[in-house]
Amino acid sequence: MSSAIYILDEGLNLLIHREYKEELNNDFIIEKFKELFIESLPVSQPILYSDGVTYVCLRCDDVYMMSPVYEDVNVMRLMTFLNKFSHVLRSYFIEYHFLDRCSKRIDSDLIKDNYILIYELFDETLDWGLPQLTEFSILKEYVKPIEQKVVMTEKEKDNRKSDAAASLDKQIEADINSSISRASTAMISWRPKGIFYNKNEFFMDFDEHLKFKYNFNAKKVIVNHISGQILCRSFLSGMPALKLELNEQIEQKNDNSELLETRSIFTNVNYHQCVELSAIHNSSLSFVPPDGEFKLLFYQILQTSVLKPLILVKPLYRIFYKEGRFILRIKAEILTSFKRKYSMTDIAIKFPLLVPLEPFKIDFDQPLRYKTKLGKVTHNLDSHSVTWHIAKLEGLSKGDMMCDFQLVVKPKLFEEYEEDMLHNKQSKNDLIYFDLPSEASNLKGKSNNMALSSAMENVLDSRAENKDILVTVAFKLSAMLYSGLKVNYLQIKEPQIDFHSFSWVKYKTICEGDDYSFVVSDDQIQVDLTEQQIAESGNIQTSPNDNTKEPNFNERDNDNNHGDQHNDEIAPAVQSSTVYSYGDRVIDFEEYKIEGEGANDQASGYPSK
Amino acid sequence: MGDSKLYTRVKASDILTELNNYEKKPKSSVYRKTILKKIIINMSVGDNEVIMLISQVTKILSDLGPTDSEIKQLCYFYLTNYWRHKQEETLHALPFIVNDYETNKKTSDNDTCLAIRTMASIHIANYLNSLVPILEESLQREISGKIRKTAAYAVAEIFNVNEKRDPESNRRLLMLLNDMLAEEDDASVVSAALSALREITDKSDTLKLSIDSNHAVKLANSLTGCGEWSQVSILSSLLSFISQDLKTAAHLIDTVLPYLQSENSSIVLNALKVVVYLSHYVDNVLDVFPVLPQSISGAVANLLLKPAEIQFLAMRNVILLLLDKPALMDLDIRMFFCQYDDLLYIKDTKLEIIFLLACQENMDMVLAELQEYALEIDVQMVRKSIRAIGNLAVKIDATSDKCVSVLADLISNSIPYVVEEVAIVARDILRKYPGKFDHLTHLLVDRVDLITEPESKTSIIWILGEYSSSISDSIYLLKKYAANMLEEPTETQLALLTAIIKAHVCQPYNKELQGLVENTLKDVTQNTNHPDLRERAYFYWRLLSAKLPNAIDIIKPRLLKLNTETDALSPDVCEELNLCIGTLASIYLRPVSQVFRHVKPDRLVDSPALVHQDLKSPQVRAKVRRSTIRSRSSTTTSQQLGNPSINRSRSSSFKLDEIVKKLSLKK
């Protein structure tokens, strides 16, 4: 039971508070909390203790919610409440409430603007510090933001003009739905009685996010996790009972019967409160959905050894010397391994730009040259990387890409920079290597713009210490899930009203950011230069027709059998379909399997083989 | 309209003049509402000057309250905040509130609740006088659930104040609450009555909440029919039930078990608490519920997907369970491997859990993971993981070789803070395994120049003193340290003094050392101001000059064996903490009485069904289970099928071990 709740702004100043127990000395509490909080920076613990008072604190976007505790309370209840309360605030302000300025975060201004609403929410959600109700769909019936009504009526007016009939239906729906008496104490607290829709629809979106990491050093898949969720939107009348059956086992029930066959692919599953926990059988679950949007369940699958990676990327970095120029070439091959009838969209493969050899830097004065049959390649300065964009890629297909950067040695850069300064010019190199970093460090001095300056530091040190080189892939794959999960059937039944209902199911697999990545090993970075060339690189730049170096280069190549296939320059790398040779190593897809999982491929229904 | 432009501190006197100005004007209600908002804002930001405006606020309440519910709410809020200081004025508002209740009690639940809530928060005799009959009325069966709920809480709120004033009415209210427990059908009202009674009994010395078995079963069954927060209250009140026989307890566990999967983390932890509590009353609980470890681990895995704050709380409770009843969980250690974007306190807690979960079988995997952390950029994380490796070396004898080789590996990079941290853990390792890891000492001594931090300096000096005879240049190093002894912190000085004397008693005929001892003793006794240090120096001096034959036993006694069981809590504390899952005590891992005074510690209450069983060691558990299964398999074949999950998890962990082995081979 909490004795008071404080909402504090980013500087830990009091915005709003509500006391439930004996009178507290607010100033003292806030001061003490501030002290403790700052002491434990950079990252403060959620539970701080001093002099018999425990401060429980939860961060919600740009504000903090804090509650001092004087006795041994159920702190998990308190924390869960604070968390849920922050969700309620978010629903009110961001998803549901339209203010003039579209803020995506809860900040102190939002709290100030709506403090009366928040007091009302405190009243509704807590009775003497005990949580009562945090379900937004019900709360919004009690506590209504004023602005909301205005906007609604305007919308309705618009509707009326455009489409009278439709808006009349809407009107009836709205009228019926708004006059419903809603009780928080009912059996099913998440759904009010008497909801009515003209057209009864139920949408289910299956989303899966992958976390995948392949390490070329260890030559194996290190991480391959799926976290998925089922997002539903329900527009159904009355009190419908839904029954959903999936093609996979949901629960591991250790009852006494028929156990060996039941094996769930889920590592863990989390249900919305509407799911009847006691009535989950094998692969089916039943629930009475709340009205509107909700998350039916989310799950994690950690045991994915039977699944093949959806897309594979093999990058190769190579530095070589040709016709008086030093060149960094990034080559990549990709291969998709899902069924041909599906297709991947919005693929973006990101290669970090690194020059593995000390004196060399990328010469940005020369344009980037690339060659590929699929999509396009762009250079992004902010993250110092090259991105290969492909709009659409089919299953069981492959592709390749090659792009060249010219290199320049460091002393040369400085020379040119000084010369340009003299002529009052600015080349692209000057901008990237000198002017931007100095600008960034200026900024850093004033305000802590860490993101920008760190990006700039990366530009200078082409390879940050101890950091893995990650090639990352972002993509969307619709109409299938990586786990192979599917809906067997969805039954919608309303005991009293006999209505016709439509249900829609959508599947999507998504990867964003660093989630899908390949760690590049040293094998994939080749330097086809001799010591001498490196040493003399400065001179070579200025006298490109120096022929004496050329045989040297070839000789070394023959020694190592490395660069032969790369020597015929722009010829596209045509290779056999399943086996790829790589320098003197041969890679095929068997290596992408996790070792020790040899004979485990019999699982049906997966988009493999 | 945003209210943020009103959000400034205003002097109370300014508000007063403003109010007086507008009083006469037409449409004054709008202005007065704005002014009221200003008052509330000043109250929100903790500016208590607005107390003096109380008579104005009560006036606004009686003028505008009946028509504008928002104003009414704000005024009530003001009153509940400030009634203590202006009891006289607060009384003026009473007729209005009672009237508000009377007019609304049939029509609007919300307004009625608001009135009851406000009256119950104001503990003035007159208020109580009017409130008690209202409460008696509201607790009747025919009133709506929401009001009864609020009334139940209100009883708890006024109970202590009312006890002095009118014990008779208190008895009546208590009876009403009790009746509610027995007869009520609406589960959320029951839960409100339960929490009210619980609060009353917690504060009182004479009353005690107890639930009989019929009622407990009824409560557990009613869980399906109420909202999430009511479920939390009901679950936590199940702890007041003392099971008299195995069957009821088992039945309750069975009913509560599905709630481990709830989306609300509070329900999960409270359900866990109930399960752990009731497991004390079920003999061989793991045979009765073979799913138990699996379900609890699943719940833990789910909690780890929540926001950081909740993760933290959940993991503290996992630690608590691991210390006392690891057999109840079947955790996959990989679940607790740190993600790069975890906050520091999460990583910290995860390391603690990894340390607890580590055993001989998973050591390879754990070490590989810890070694990876030790190579990170974050210095704090590096230090903590090195310390964890060191502690593991001390904890598990069989794998100490591996741990030490990892440490040796880490030192070889000669990163200062790594060497410093290894120096600290090396002390314990060397103590635990005398003579086994001398190479570690040599590696450290080679890099002794990198060590600057006091704690690790103290540690390396201790090593130099203790093993001076086996370290070739120990004398040279001690001498070097002694040269700037006076600049060191006291802790290091003390260690250095002792180390030099120890070295001396081991090699009494070493001329160089004799000189060093003389110089140091002289130096310390003359130049230091710290009494401890000076006293110790004199002590050694006399001891040495007395030329006792057994001086070496006093100065360098044989080391006591390092006790690795220090992290274990005493059984009493464990028992108490087990009943505190989800509460603050579980965060501090200390008994309630140490953190909070005036709290009754919970105890397991004796009953015929109470059993003491050993859930300590997971290994024992596996064996016991297998054997029981074997013995039962003759009677029922289906029973044997009850455990595929165990077999499977074993096989998968075996596979993992293989993978890790292969990995290390490849390297």
Automatic annotation (TrEMBL), chain A:
Matching InterPro entries: Adaptor_comp_med_subunit, AP2_Mu_C_sf, Clathrin_mu, Longin-like_dom_sf, MHD
Annotated region (Disordered), positions in chain: 535-577
One Pfam family of this chain: Adap_comp_sub
GO cellular-component term (any): endomembrane system
Major location category of this protein: membrane
Localisation: Endomembrane system
Biased composition (Basic and acidic residues): 547-569
Record's compositionally biased regions (Polar residues): 535-546
A GO biological-process term: intracellular protein transport
PROSITE patterns attached to this UniProt entry: MHD
Name of the molecule in the record: MHD domain-containing protein
UniProtKB/TrEMBL annotation, chain B:
Record region (Disordered): 616-650
Domain Clathrin/coatomer adaptor adaptin-like N-terminal: from-to ranges: 15-545
GO biological process: intracellular protein transport; vesicle-mediated transport
Stored SUPFAM superfamilies: ARM repeat
Listed GO MF terms: clathrin binding
Tree of life domain: Eukaryota
InterPro entries, alphabetized: AP_beta, AP_complex_bsu_1_2_4, ARM-like, ARM-type_fold, Clathrin/coatomer_adapt-like_N
Principal cellular location given in the protein's record: membrane
Gene3D superfamilies: Leucine-rich Repeat Variant
Protein localization: Endomembrane system
One Gene Ontology cellular component: membrane coat
Keywords: Membrane, Protein transport, Transport
Biased composition (Polar residues): 639-650
Its job: Adaptins are components of the adaptor complexes which link clathrin to receptors in coated vesicles. Clathrin-associated protein complexes are believed to interact with the cytoplasmic tails of membrane proteins, leading to their selection and concentration.
Family: Belongs to the adaptor complexes large subunit family.
Record-given protein name: AP complex subunit beta
Taxonomic source organism: Eeniella nana (Yeast)
